[in-house]
Each structure stands twice: as C-alpha cells, then as structure tokens.
Amino acid sequence: QVQLVESGGGLVQPGGSLRLSCAASRIIFSIYDVGWYRQAPGKQRELVADITSDLRTNYADSVKGRFTISRDNAKSTMYLQMNSLKPEDTAVYYCNTHRIVGLKDIDYWGQGTQVTVSS
To answer: What is the arithmetic mean of pLDDT over 98-111?
Structure first.
C-alpha cells in the first residue's frame, strides 16, 4: 500500500519560514509528477506547486517567489520550502503524487499537515 507521510508543519509568525517534507513509500517515486496542495477552512483545495518527473516546476501565482518545490528521488521525498509566510498561507497542506497510465489517473495523497501563520 502506497504511503505519503508529511512533516514540517506548525505555527509560524508572518514573515517566517517553514519547510514541509513528504516521504513516499511503496511507490516508484521518480516516475511520478508530485505536488503540494492546500485547503483553508471554507475553501476548496488548491494547487500550490508541482514538479514533474523531468523536473519542470509550476507555482500558484500567490506563492511565486516565496515558495520552492523540490524532490529527491533517491530518498523518495518531496519538499516545499516556504518563505515570507503570510496569514493567508494558513491551511492544511497535502502532498500528492500523480501519473497517467493509459486513460487512468493514478493519484496518492498524504494525510495533510497544518500550517498556521499568525502573530
């Protein structure tokens, strides 16, 4: 059974930094596109950033220049470095792995980690 385990969330003051990690197991991590999503209370889950298997990155406009997504295929782990955090970044952050096999989307999700930005 595939597992994605997130860590690194917590409470941080505005302007601060956090680094999220997501370790994958029982999956050929390197062939998946991976990404981070977040969901704030009362809002839909949204894409924060993703990185493809061939290392192309994509960011939501709201986090460009502040967040950096990366991956270490040897460790089957993805990261999200979050700098200059704002209160509006407060949300539960989820990691995701995705690939398409034929006509089928294959997605796995982590359990989520809370990020709270508050003074």
So the answer is: 95
